[in-house]
Amino acid sequence: MSNTAPPPETSHRPDADDPTGPHAVTGNQGAAAVPPRGESALDGASAVGRLAATVERLRREIRAAHARADGRALIETAKGILIERLHCSPTEAARQLATLADHAGVSVMELAADILDRTAADRLTEAACDFVTETATPAAPPDGKTVSMRLRTAESGAGAADDTHAVARSLLEHALAPLGATAVAVWAIAPDASLTLAGSAGFTDHEATRWRHVPPGVATFARRALADLDWTWTPDLSRIATPSIGQHDLTGARAAAPAGTGGRIHGILEICWPNPLPEQPPRLRRQIEALAELCAHTLETHPAPGDPTVTHPATVDLVGIADCLHDPALVLVPHEDEHRQLVDFRVHHVNARFLDPAGRPANLIHGALLLEAYPLAATPGGLYDIVERVHATGESYRAESVTLTALVDDVRLDAVADVAVSRHANAILLIWRIEHEAARLARLLQHAQRLGRIGGFEEDLVTGAVTWNDSLFALHGLPTTAVPVALADLPNHAHPDDTAALARFLHTLVHHRRHATVSFRLERTDGVTRRIRIVAEPVLDAEDRLLAIRGAHQDVSAQHWTEVALAATRDRLAHSEQQVGEQNRLARQLQHAIMPPTPAPLDAEGLQVAVRYRPAESDTAVGGDWYDALVLPSKKILLCVGDVAGHGIHAATSMIVLRNALRGLAITGAGPAQLLTWLNTVTLHLTDQVTATVVCALYDPGTRTMRWARAGHLPPVWIRDDTTQRLSLLDGPLLGAFAEAGYAEDEIHLALGDTLLLYTDGLIERRDHCLESSLDQLLATARAITATLDERLDRLLAHSRADTDDDTCVVGIQIT
């Protein structure tokens, strides 16, 4: 359509002498005047402008005429209501309508729409009333029409329309354009669940042609409303990857609503906005659903081209189709209440093959309602829901192994059947095939063979015929039309190393006539090698003569390679266990060589030293516990107990490094704190990133004083008479934790008979007790008086409740 504006009314009228003017006379009557050179373009443009203005004016007049016609239809309907209610003439009704409109201060069309709303009380009325209720002070619409007027005008236009395209134009012009919509599409649903563009407005002819048919299964925006059987809305079509009509030009908001009557969905109303919109209030949804109902009545009255309802009445065709079927079939028709709402389906016809799951005769089912004949079909997701959905959407349904339940004398009777439901116009064809037990077991066997990769065979030794099932052809990689391979020919298809095993297998079957099994590598013609296991048995007659061999092939490739991988894993695990065992035995021997469980007595005046070392019970838990008791050149005695973190050969070698390093450092005469500082440096630089705890003490026999320090280790226990106490917890981090570490030092004075216990955590640690409770238990055990120091240490080990299976080291000194 041209957008050229009409020429102004005050345009200059050409002079009569101007040969290009409208009144110019030419020499040849009836021929076109030829304008002078250089003026044809200007005059041509003026002529086109005047023509475009005329066309645009005529179009406006046509649209206005259509609007007046729709308005007149609305007013005439209101007049008819007044004639019926007031029993007056048409002239009096028109006068009454004008008088009432004048007194109410509204236009005649507004009053007519209000009269229709109050009289009809339908969904259009609900939509208009909801709009008024939800907007307390509604602003005046830009076109001066109320919601009721727009909806009633659209209804009048739809009722007077000759086809669905005219209905779409009426809905867009009167009801949807004031809401900002610029295009509308009315889709009709075919029996195969495809969508046909029955009517549209606002789209280009090219776009409408491209979308005239949408095959079933194509997920468009309109089909979403069909699948959900509900209103569908998106504020921005460009944000969803769903194809739809006009998606390149109209990328804004979009709405779709099912158009149905009497429980059946006839089509979909799809509305397009050019720009994105926020979430709309419920009133918009109700207005659109009311318009969708108008479309449903139109689609029911004016079916889309190609709709089988035009030329094929369902109740005639389906009866003939059902009678030709070899399966039980029912023809169902909708059963509606007085409000034209679907409440059930009536059995219109029962074919001759009908077989009721409960064994009832066909005459008891014919003419009955579906829920009366099969009340348990009303369960959620049951047969009634399936039939109702097929009737609403037109999308056929087919499923295997559906349980059909009938209720006879309050007894449930179940039957398994294959069900197919399809819609033909307004009728439903319901077909079921009740499954026999033999067929069900045969199908179960087929599934078992498929899942187990098993194929069966039988070889007739009298005729030489070989029979394979389809699964066996698939195992061998052969088409079902290929010639089956006899057992005697299997070596030609097997790996050469397996021919001897196949020969023994055949000898057992044919000569010994016994059940046999064999596993071999099958080399298929497609180059794939599979591991196959054959289980077979001979078939003998009454006189013990061999007639045939039957059995099965199974593809055990996956199991074979799993067993191979498992065997390799077992070998690697056994080798690893052997290596770990050798390392632990070496660590144990190393520990015993450096620190024997019962060391030689210490030659020290006025001091008795006893040591107990209890290794872990498990060879895999060889720890790094160590001790030392050494008389230094200064006659002072070095006493220490330590524990290297970890287990195994690494912990044992690290323990030896620290023990020997501390011995060498102690000869310098430095105090315990300084010795631990140096030993921390050794741990950081001369070991492989280990950490350890140590208690280091120097005892001076001359003064009976002991200086001690700790590096993250448990403090010693001091025993005097029947009193036991733990020494104070001096500051000192464990060895190997920090490069710059400082250690505190303390000094205690011992008396004759005093005893000190240095120990590792393997003596007290328990999994289910805190450290404090374990230390209290140690103090209680050490408090008992014993005859000798050795007996005291033995008692500590005997009453130890530790359960961590760790090494235990205890050093006891007693002043004598």
Automatic annotation (TrEMBL):
Domain PAC: residue ranges: 516-568
First and last residue of the signal peptide: none
Location of region: Disordered: 1-41
SUPFAM superfamilies, per the entry: CheY-like, PP2C-like, PYP-like sensor domain (PAS domain)
Gene Ontology MF terms: phosphatase activity; RNA binding
Keywords: Hydrolase
Residue span(s) of domain ANTAR: 55-116
Database matches in InterPro entries: ANTAR, Bact_Sigma-Reg, CheY-like_superfamily, PAS-assoc_C, PAS-like_dom_sf, PPM-type-like_dom_sf, PPM-type_phosphatase-like_dom, WH-like_DNA-bd_sf
PANTHER family: STAGE II SPORULATION PROTEIN E (PTHR43156:SF2), STAGE II SPORULATION PROTEIN E-RELATED (PTHR43156)
Name of the protein in question: Transcription antitermination regulator
